[in-house]
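Batch manifest, entry 17 of 40.
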Amino acid sequence: MREEGEGYDDRRDEGRHGTRAAVHAASGGRLGAAHPRQEGPTDLRLVPPALAAWATSAVMLDAAPAWATGTAVGCLVLAGVLMTLRVGRMGRVPGAMTGGRSGWPAVTAAAVLVCVAAAAVSAGLHGADLRRGPLPGLAERYATVIAEAEITSDPRLVRPRVRGPAPAPTAVLIEADVRRVETRDGATLVTRTPVLMVVDVERRRSSSASSAFSAGDRPSPWLALLPSTRVRVTARVVPPADGGDTAAVLRVRDPKVPEVVGEPSAAQRLAGRLRAGLREATDGLAPDARALLPGLVVGDTARITPELDEAFKETDLAHTLAVSGSNLTIILVLLVGPPGLAQRVERRGLAPRLGISLRTTALLGGALTLGFVIVCRPDPSVLRAAACGAVALLALATGRRRSLIPALATAVLLLVLYDPWLSRSYGFLLSVLATGALLTLAPRWSAALRARRVPPRLAEALAAAAAAQALCAPVVAVLSARVSLVAVPCNLLVEFAIAPATVLGFAALATAPWAMPVAKALAWCAGWPAGWIADVARTGAALPGAGIDWPGSWTGAALLALATVALLLAGRRLLRHPWWCGACGVLLLLAVVQPPPLTRVVTGWPPPGWRFAMCDVGQGDATVLAAGAGTGVVVDAGPDPVLVDRCLRTLGITRIPLVVLTHFHADHVAGLPGVLRGRQVGAIETTAYQEPVDQAEFVRREAAARGVSVTRAAAGEERRTGGLSWRVVWPPADPTVVPEGPNDASVALLVRSAGLRLLLLGDLEPPAQRALLRSPAGPLLGGVDVLKVAHHGSAYQDPGLLSRAAPRLALISAGADNTYGHPAPGTVAALRAMGAMVLSTDRDGALAVTGEGAELGVAGD
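Output type: structure tokens
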């Protein structure tokens, strides 16, 4: 039977588009298949008020209360004048009450003014909250206080990128509202002020060195705190760095165990139980799936490694790690079917199959949306998705035809009035832009592709990915100063995997508290598509031409927008010429993949017959010794997995008989996952000095995860592979010799390659350099052809060792504009005074040594 409220729409649709059978024929009779659009002209009347409220909120957050009040009053007065004139005109003009749209501009202008007034008031009040109370004054004095705070978001672990020998301390960031402050003079002040709490945590090492990261490091108890929990902390109050939506930053002292003074709400306890159940259900999955699945489902990114996170950013897949409208849409479509069929007799989804009416379906969808917000937390993208869903469900419940553009505009308007800080959120902006692209550009582009005989499903997917990328790319360029060339294909490749991973992940989330074995089975099934998504991100990020650098400013964004428009206009013409399209596609593919043979022909890099290469990995070391076609011995891995992987791909290295990690500082070992990715690796050799301990454990975990053995180097060891041979000259085999630190424990190698002698010194400092000169290997070090200068060319070098080595070519690995002053001018001058040619990666990029004997050469990329 036809449900109440559907008959009128169906008759109207039949008159406009033919019978339902015609619609079925157009959709091919497939579940969820595309069907002709049945919307009339898009209703854009809510768009100007929404944009006006958005802009007003962004401006008025920093305005003085008088400005906000004056703006609101002025706008309301103007709106009243406009409406008075409108009413007067309606009384004078016959039929004006019932006919035409001639008065709509005045009504729209009045609506814009009312929304501007509301936004000014809301933003003024929110901005005043940051300037009210005692905390801003305490922050100016950097005072130490005892504060009682209510947590408002999930704590998140921040692992800073490697910028030197050791990573910066790991910190937990917690957004909270301070409710009570006790100062040192005994005063107790009551307030309600938003702050950011920063808790520096020490990573607790486990007894099992081979365990995964998430299990090997026991999580800080701060990460277990749920929103709405009240804690009491002793902290130093400091001003916020960026002037955002926090009044101050609390640097928490003695952060080992939080002092809880108020339990979380029942709803948050339930949400925490569900999220913990999902984490437990995913514990047995492969590392990537275990890390990614909670992020895909509920935005829980605690297990995402910095390397994987960077890969998602490089490929513009980071939106999959942030809960957004797509997650809610997937679940709602499962309930009500494709949105365009929600009010039709042939509507699909679980609801009509179970005989549930439209209004009951809307109520179920509303309950589902509310649960979605609670479990996934009210982040900007989640709120935007929930607001859009609520407006759409209201339209469904009242039996009215939905229009998604007004729904999006309504969501934006309500959200920026509720939380004006969203108007300055890049995540919120990207979310709205992506949704707008899917609702406006994507349908037109999809129709154009189908008209050119592209299969419907492929046309829809390609149009959606391209439209979202076209609108979001300028904003992403501002954030990352980079434009991804693989974003569209990577989004296409993961699109079919996101829905099953999300649905199965939500099923595991719902069943985990009641039937953990079932939840684990569901999570195992979801792990396959989740693993595929991670593989696509890693592979795309590792491509040599995955992205290009771009000015990270709004001027750069405008230039990219103009370039995008020009590209789209040119693309319309190219679509008429399939052969030209194919040729452009091949050229783009070659630019992204950059096959080594072709790259060598075009750029001359790497030069033919190269013997030794120094990768440009920033402030760190990663070098390669050629050992045959596609084979090389890697010495150190640098600080960034993506950079070292890209370098090895460019060099064409697919087999690595040995990886030598000279010592365990992060700028030498943090890139190890990039070395191991997709390559045959025989073994890893390290120094015997296992400090820093956390980095040594990291190496063992990565090796164990890939089944690679780890051995320890000692002076006197000799090895050979192909035409390459080397001798370990440091550290000494005597276990009683204790180095002064990790640098002085570096593995040093004397290498022979096709008549060339190379000396690689790791990060040895003067005490170890002098000891090496006095060691049994000292006499062997004279007159080398190539010297890899110790410790990035720092000023701490032993003149005696440099004189003994007397290199013809000295190479230095250092990062551009590094804060350590590497390479030191004195070291460079001393080497040049000895007759050596000195080159460094910070100035010359990646370097490759060629030739043999007297025909020594060097080339840069």
